[in-house]
Amino acid sequence: MTCPYCRSESAEGALVCASCGRDIAVPATLLAERDDLLRKREELRDELRRARDEVEAIMKRRKSR
Length: 65
Fold this sequence. Notes:
Blueprint (H helix, E strand, L loop, with lengths): L27 H36 L2
């Protein structure tokens, strides 16, 4: 695990950085929130991709008239 503050390597699962002494443990609630946000981001990316495809199809239909 890399310390987000001093960038030194600490043992996996460490609660405190061995180099700078700062807390580096991530609470499970934050990990769950991160996972939820990543899932939502993917859903939004998929929705955006579909919307772009739909707009592109509409623009092609307009040009062919």
